[in-house]
Amino acid sequence: MPDLSKRALFGKILGANEKPQDIMPPYFGGKFDCLECDLLCIKACHRDVLIYEEGRVKFDTSKLGCDFCKECANVCPNGVLSLENPAIINAKTFINVNSCLAWNDVICYNCYDVCKFKAIEYFGVFRPVINQKCVNCGECLSSCFKSAILMSVKKD
């Protein structure tokens, strides 16, 4: 039987045992006060990018991306989401080149076609990269049927 304690040690070193951090929605003020809340922000989101888990509103791009319509911030009664806060999503969006069709000699423009911010550039017809125009709205994530575009919490 293998010694699993060595795996646990490497997992700690590499951070594999850490719970991934949640991506917060735009207009988030940094503090949650969602207890006894009717979750009006989630009901107001016409793109279903907000979910409620573990007492928190979280950003979820499994269906669509955020269009920054401001409705969530307009209806939040507790100021968790507020127009006084910046419309920033605390994430970093990147392409997994091993999974991306366009990085593997297949012509695919799904992510490019949906990005209204022109944040995806191609080198010819292949090798897309995400440029500095990306606002981390998440629209490109659901457009990629290979799930090659990923989003993680931005490390300062």
Automatic annotation (TrEMBL):
Q: Which residues cross the membrane?
A: none
Query: GO molecular function terms here?
Result: 4 iron, 4 sulfur cluster binding; metal ion binding
* Keywords for the protein's UniProt record, in alphabetical order: 4Fe-4S, Iron, Iron-sulfur, Metal-binding
Q: Where does the 4Fe-4S ferredoxin-type domain start and stop, copy by copy?
A: 55-86, 126-154
Record PROSITE patterns: 4FE4S_FER_1, 4FE4S_FER_2
Q: What name is this protein filed under?
A: Ferredoxin-type protein
- Which species expresses this protein natively? Campylobacter iguaniorum
Its gene name is napF
